[in-house]
């Protein structure tokens, strides 16, 4: 992970020498939303399936130079993973995946570098605050929800990850984005039955936004 962060930093510094520029010298505010494909990664979570959910929130872009911007964001992010699905032997009594849902308010603090006009890459730390946790045996219906009280949870309230992504901003203010968020530490609390279990948030995000 340290090598990944160091490589990303060197890569972004090198890109500042490219002849590119941002589309505005003013601070811009915007909104964005999109789809999440999330799971847990780590030595103890090799075979879990991803949960499909969504993200939505606010974004700001603060120019530092003609090629470099600071981009803080705050948004809701539906994360977690699929636990099981009905197999050929009908082991699980459900026609749908059983989702372990972990919902966060995410706050990424990104350095954004423009490669050419409109096209940029971005990277930085991301801080997640857990706001909801539940099992859902019927994710496509209203039933099947089993909420997990925070006192009974084995998952930490706070999570840290690294965000790496790219985006393209059109002249009319709309932008497309793709991002990969990889957890830095395990999401599980110490001094529980999950102490020492390696499970980190692993999320792909694709979305659409608009800068005002």
From TrEMBL:
Residues 19-188 form the Outer membrane protein beta-barrel domain. Pfam families: OMP_b-brl_2. The keyword Signal applies. Keywords: Signal. Residues 1-22 form the signal peptide. This is Outer membrane protein with beta-barrel domain. It comes from Winogradskyella arenosi.
């Amino acid at each position: 992970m340290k090598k990944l962060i160091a490589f990303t930093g060197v890569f972004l510094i090198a890109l500042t020498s490219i002849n590119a520029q941002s589309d505005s010298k003013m601070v811009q505010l915007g909104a964005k939303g999109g789809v999440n494909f999330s799971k847990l990664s780590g030595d103890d979570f090799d075979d879990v399936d991803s949960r499909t959910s969504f993200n939505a929130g606010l974004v700001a872009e603060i120019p530092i130079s003609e090629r470099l911007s600071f981009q803080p964001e705050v948004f809701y992010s539906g994360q977690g993973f699929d636990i099981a699905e009905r197999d050929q032997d009908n082991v699980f009594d459900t026609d749908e995946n059983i989702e372990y849902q972990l919902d966060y308010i995410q706050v990424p603090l990104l350095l954004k570098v423009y490669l050419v006009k409109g096209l940029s890459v971005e990277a930085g730390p991301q801080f997640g605050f857990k706001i909801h946790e539940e099992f859902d045996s019927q994710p496509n219906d209203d039933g099947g929800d089993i909420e997990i009280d925070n006192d009974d949870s084995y998952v930490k309230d706070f999570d840290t990850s690294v965000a790496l992504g790219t985006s393209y901003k059109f002249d009319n203010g709309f932008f497309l984005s793709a991002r990969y968020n990889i957890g830095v530490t395990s999401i599980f609390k110490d001094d529980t039955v999950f102490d020492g279990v390696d499970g980190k948030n692993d999320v792909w995000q694709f979305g659409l936004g608009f800068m005002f």
